[in-house]
Amino acid sequence: MADQDKRPQWDLLVPWSRAAEAMGVTPEQLREWHEKYGVPAVTTPAGHWRGYRSWIDMVLRSARPGQAPNIADVTARWWRERNPDALKEVA
Predict the structure, then answer these.
(1) Which pTM does this prediction carry?
(2) CB 86 within 8 A of CB 79
(3) How confident is the model at residue 83 (pLDDT cuts 50, 70, 90)?
(4) Of 15, 29, 59, 60, which one's alpha carbon is 20 to 30 angstroms from that of 70?
(5) Could you write out the DSSP letters of every residue in 23-80?
(6) CATH domain 9-82 topology
């Protein structure tokens, strides 16, 4: 099976406030990460922010006791898994 066939075909969108709560940060912190690190997010036509459940899960899985996850690394990995060519110029 080709790598392209292994990519997720869909993802759940989570309200920004719930994503922040699950991660123990504020919605404002998530927006800062979105601006600084390219955290994946969408806005609805009404202007409400949503985050991808798969990214939130990846961040939570990467956390270690007493050590916060590296948001930049997790975000880059998330994007690479969805589009390996997306970050060629960044690397």
Answers:
(1) 0.76
(2) yes
(3) confident
(4) 15
(5) HTS-HHHHHHHHHHH---EEE-TT--EEEEHHHHHHHHHH-BTTB---HHHHHHHHHH
(6) Multidrug-efflux Transporter Regulator; Chain: A; Domain 2 (1.10.1660)
